[in-house]
Amino acid sequence: MKKLLLTTTVILLISGAFISCKKEKVEEPVSQEQVTSVNQGNGIMETVQRGPNGTNVVFSNWIQKTDPDWFIWNPGKFTTDMLTTSLTDAVRDKGIVLVYFKLSGFISQLPSESMGENIVLDFSFETGKITARYTYGGGSLYGNNILNVQFRYVLIPSSSFSGNGRMISPVDYSNYNAVCEYYGIEK
């Protein structure tokens, strides 16, 4: 009986030691959205923000181009550049470059064409630069109204496609409000 009592006591002591050494669960705080601002110069501020799947999405402020910013190719054809170090070879080759314009509160994705006004507003891009083009063929927006157009770009790296590739969009990119909501972009 003494042996049974001694064995039971030893088992209880060893069990108690294991139970008391049980590791406590440490709760880790949920990571906050990381937001960083980068001044690209010429009135362009970019925000680098963690997207919904943890990748960085870059978006600019609304950029107001002034008269000296526009280069006139010939009457009715204007271009202006937006320089950005965030438009890397990787984003250019495998990511998505979106450009939106705003005029009198109306926001739309480029390219945009107004046949009634005979106006085309589109863009091209290369590493480090986005070029907006305004082609006028007659209509009411000619002249100083081009100075009222504002631009905003959104750069989405390929890592944000979650293995879907660019073919399956997580959001309708032509819908500015939906893009802002999906990527957490301040409108």
Q: What would a concise description of this structure say?
A:
This protein has three helices and twelve strands; from the N terminus they run αββββββαββββββα. It is of the alpha+beta class and 187 residues long.
Structure description:
The chain has one domain. It contains 3 helices and 12 strands. The protein has 187 residues and is of the alpha+beta class.
Number of E strands: 12
**Apparent shape:** globular
What can be said about the biggest beta sheet? 7 strands, antiparallel
User: DSSP strand (E) fraction?
Assistant: 35-45%
Q: Please mark out the parts with pLDDT under 50 across 5 or more consecutive residues, or reply none.
A: 4-33
Assembly state: single chain
Class from helix and strand fractions: alpha+beta
Q: Measured on Cα atoms, how large is the radius of gyration?
A: 28 Å
Arithmetic mean pLDDT = 76
Order of helices and strands: HEEEEEEHEEEEEEH
Give the N-to-C terminal Cα separation.
Answer: 80 Å
Tally of helical runs: 3
Domain module count:
1
Q: What percentage of residues falls in helices of 4 or more residues? A: 10-25%
